[in-house]
Amino acid sequence: MTRFSSAAKNGLTPAALEALLREVGAARYHNRHPLHHKMVSGALSRVQLQAWALNRYCYQAIIPRKDAMILARAEDPGFRAEWRKRIEDHDGTNGWDGGIARWVKLATGLGLDEAMVKSERLALPATRFAVGAYLSFCTERSLLEAVASSLTELFSPVIIGERVPAMLAKYDYVTEDILAYFKPRPVQASRDAEFALAYVLKYADSPRKQQAVIDALVFKCDLLWSMLDALEHAYGEDGHIPPGAFDPGAA
Asked: Residue 15: CB partners within 8 Å, gap ≥ 6?
């Protein structure tokens, strides 16, 4: 049992709940992961960066789908008007001029084939399981829990602020154009996180609901961490690439 697993048993003030949610991120967000540290230190090979971009695409592609599930369950028009901005950010105006398209540009800029990336067929099994679990969570859990799971965006500007300058400095084949996905994300993520946090603090009005939103954020942090665990296992020094996954060394 972690300190977060029963943190709300006696009830929390909104300020205390917010502080605890931020503590979850400080303790469990994936900018603490060894693979992230290797990335920003310049220690990853081009193949490792390709594998990261390929697998992360699966996560990027699921975001507007999970947000559509949240949108469909929301009865408040004001909530829907705000939440749909997330879908527009990723899909753009025609499906391929938003964040997902910019992630494809990142992946192809690292040398991957566009059709292969979009197909997701060479992604790690663990990646597919993780993103499927995220979609299921946002579909099957309460609206409050689904919203709370998005609060990893509170910490997104931090990891982007670490990642982008380091990648530009450490990898001579990475350019600002390749990393264009990240340019609007700090502003978008901060806007979205502010709205989601206000919603959570308003509607998590009992110990049970407060614990549910804490658990939802822990779940999301664990999911993102597990994706990097899978990448490190498959493409680290020992190289345990599962059958059917991206393997540039295969014949």
From this structure: none
Nearest to 248 by CA among 128, 116, 127: 116
- DSSP 8-state secondary structure symbol assigned to residue 241: P
**Which pTM does this prediction carry?**
0.95
Neighbours of 207 (CB within 10 A): 15
Alpha carbon distance 59, 123 (integer Å):
11
pLDDT digits (tens, 9 = 90+) for 100-133: 999 999 999 999 999 999 999 999 999 999 999 9
Half-sphere exposure (Cβ direction) of 154: Cα atoms closer than 13 Å: 26
The gap from C-alpha 126 to its chain's centroid, in whole angstroms, comes to 15
- Where residue 100 sits, what CATH number does that domain have? 1.20.910.10
Tally of structural domains, the chain: 1
Q: Which domain holds residue 74?
A: 45-235
- What does the block give as tokens for 73? 């369950």
